[in-house]
Amino acid sequence: MLILRQNRKSLILGPIILLSGALTTWACNIPVFRFALERWRPDVGEILVFTGSSLTQSQSLLVQQLKEECGREGVNLQLRRVDIDAEQSEEYRFAWQSLERECNAKAPYVLVRCRHPKAEGNGFVNAWHGSLEAASKASIGDSPARKELARRLLAGHAVVWLVIPGEDEKATQDCISKLQTRCKQLESYVELPDGIGLPGSELYSEVPLLVQFSVLQLDDEAHEELFFKNWLRGFYGVEKSEHEPLVVPVFGRGRALEVIPASSVNDALIEDLTLFLCGACSCQVKDMNPGFDLLLDAQWETDLFGEDGLVPSPEPPKMQQSPVLLQIPPGRRKQ
C-alpha cells in the first residue's frame, strides 16, 4: 500500500483512548452500534483516474465502467478524472508525482483513497493503486464478504467480527474459535442501556434491536476479495508478514472499529470492545469516535427507513398548556 505509514501501536490503542474520552460528552441511551446504524452516513472514498489529455476508445470505456460502478446508489465512492497535463490542484499533482516516483506509474493510472481518522493532511489514506485495466477488475466498491457484512448488520447483528486469514491455517481457526466462544458468552449477559426509546433516544428503524454477535471469515483466495484483503492488511503494515490473521470488528453501516492482529485478541479485548459498542452512545459526533468506513454497496437509507429513505421525525415531548402552582412549605424557624 502506497504512502500508508501508520504506527500500529497508536492504532491499536486509539479506540481505548477515545472510548474513555467519549464518556464525558453528551448523554444518549441508544447503543453505539445502533446509533451508528441509524444516524452515521458512511464516508465517501475516491477513485482518482490520472490520465493525459486524451484516452483511447478502450480506455474511455474502462473509465466509464468505473464511473458507473461509483454511480450506483449505495456505493460510497466517487470518481474524479485528473488530467496530469493540466491539473491545477497541488494535492493531486503531489499524489501523481508520488506515484511516478515510488511506483513508476504511467498514465492512465488509478489511485483509490479512503477516509481514515488518523490520516494526515487531507484525511485520506491510499488504499490501492494500479493500472486502469487492473482497476476495472479489482472489485473496488463491493465484494461477497462486504455484501454479507451489510446483510448481517441490517438483520440486527450488533457486531460482526471479520477475520482475514493468515498463512497459518491453524492460527486462523484458533482465532475464529476464540471469537465464536467469547461472543456466545457475551450474548448471554451483555445488557443494553436503559431508556432506549425515550425522548432523545428514539429508534428510527424496524431493524430488531439484538444482542447478537457473529464471526465472518474472509475468503482470501477469491479474486473478488483481493482488493478488500489488501486494503485492510495495509493498515497493519506492509512490513509485517501475512503469516498472522487479522480481526476487524464491524458495526453500524460497515464501520470498522480497528484492524487488530490476532495475537492481540484475547477475551478481555473482545469484551471491552463489545461493551463499548453495546453501551450508551455518549459521544454522538461520528468523527470523535474510533473507526473508519469500509467501501461497500448497500441501500442503507431505504432498507432502514422505507422506500422514501427518510428518517422519521420523533414526536416532541408533550408540554403542559398552563403553569401548575405548587405549595412550598414554610422553612423551620431557628430555635
Explain what you see.
- This protein is α+β, with helices and mostly antiparallel strands and 335 residues long.
- The protein has two domains: 195 residues, 3-Layer(aba) Sandwich (Glutaredoxin); 92 residues, Glutaredoxin.
- It contains ten helices and ten strands.
- Strands 5, 6, 7, 8, 9 and 10 form a six-stranded mixed sheet that branches.
- Helix 7 packs across helix 9.
- It is globular.
Give the class from helix and strand content and strand pairing: alpha+beta
- The CATH superfamily title of the largest domain: Glutaredoxin
Provide the CATH architecture of the largest domain. Answer: 3-Layer(aba) Sandwich
Percent in helix: 25-40%
User: What is the total tally of β strands?
Assistant: 10
SSE pattern = HHEHEHEEHHEHEHEEEHEH
Count of discrete structural domains: 2
**Count of helical regions:** 10
For the report, how would you describe the main beta sheet? 6 strands, mixed
CATH topology of the largest domain: Glutaredoxin
Low-confidence residue ranges:
1-26, 315-335
Q: Can you identify the CATH class of the largest domain?
A: Alpha Beta
β content, as a range? 15-25%
Q: How large, in whole angstroms, is the Cα Rg?
A: 23 Å
Q: Report mean pLDDT, rounded to a whole number.
A: 84
Which geometry do the CA atoms define? Answer: globular
